Amino acid sequence: MNQGQRNPKSRKYLTELVQTYIVKALHAARQWRVQLIGNWLYKYSSWGVASLFFVGVSLSIVMAACSPPNANNPTGNAAATSQTDVTLNFVSYSVTNAAYQQIIPKFIEQWKKEHNQNVTFNQSYDGSGSQTLAVIDGKEADVVHLSLALDINKLVQAGFIQPGWEKEAPNDAIVTKSLDAIAIREGNPKNIKTWADLARNGVNVVTPDPRTSGGARWNFLSLWGSVTKTGGNENQAIDFTSKVYNNAPLLPKTARNATELFLNDNKGDVLLNYENEMILLAKNGQKISYVVPDVNISIDNPVAVVDKNVDKHRTRAIAEAFIKFLYTPESQREFTKLGFRPVDLTVSKEVESKFPKIKTLFKAQDLGGWDEIQKKFFDEGAIFDKIRAKKS
Fold this sequence. Notes:
By secondary structure, this protein is an alpha/beta fold. It folds into 3 domains: 3-66; 77-176 and 302-337, Periplasmic binding protein-like II (D-Maltodextrin-Binding Protein, domain 2, 3-Layer(aba) Sandwich); 180-297 and 359-389, D-Maltodextrin-Binding Protein, domain 2 (3-Layer(aba) Sandwich). It has 17 helices and 11 strands. It has helices at residues 8-27, 34-44, 48-66, 77-81, 97-115, 128-136, 149-157, 214-228, 234-246, 255-263, 275-283, 307-313, 316-326, 329-337, 345-351, 369-378, 383-389, and strands at 86-93, 119-126, 143-145, 174-178, 180-184, 205-206, 270-274, 289-291, 295-297, 299-305, 360-362. α2 (34-44) runs antiparallel to α3 (48-66). The chain starts with 7 loop residues before the first helix and ends with a helix.
């Protein structure tokens, strides 16, 4: 019996063998030796030429998909549409961690469904100021969500993010909001009700260090604005903030560190931190009491693509898609569950009754904007350093 007369079982067996070899080739295309498969097919079948042609076409498609992205495509679209896995490096400030543990898996699922591509996130959480310095020093973040615009502006100055980043996302790139709050001990033994109470003798205050923590800078501005936005002058503001920081013997690195000192180590009478952090602690079963002063600052937290790194990593398309996902009602609801005030108007209406209303709300722009704030308050030798130098 010649090869052209092989019985159906032999043909079926031969077909299964060919399919097996093709599957193996798809997993290791660069190691496959087409000639070996061709010789094998010709030895056992008169239809080897057609089979070899099919294998060759399949191999060409696979090798094209495995080829590196086009060097002339700096936007990263090739990485977003190929079937290879992709890694996104994400850097944020410490208190967003819990929210992103809910949001990131949702984005991964959606991206897989829409693009048939697996996404892995390298995540990093620390004080906003520390994270900014880490990116400048070589931490290759593709996306940053930081506590304040000042930190992103530092990345602009260092050449990592292009100017105009505020217009690259909705709401001037502000993706989460919060207010400042004052955590108190059970029963409020120090009778803390307003910012002014923090300056009293015998009140021990826990707040992070403005040199490393974005949250600490918001705390400082809340204290300052509680005077200047209610009729007081700057001399009165300096006197008041000096008294509060005289009551703060420890300045931990991050807002999360401050919370741990207050709750776990029982340090201090009061803790200054984000409203969302207080809500998250209560949600997680921690017994905590706090007040949200009705003179307060809008804590606006921005997000941005790190242009220098996404162009290097060919991840711009997926980085931009991730930021877009953060503004969806689905993500905004997750932020809200963990205490952030949403920027999406639909979600804001859904949850407005859950947050206390504020009598006097001011923004960083009302204090001169972040460039002026940095120069006036936080540069070396500026107001904050002078206040610390006077600490008794």
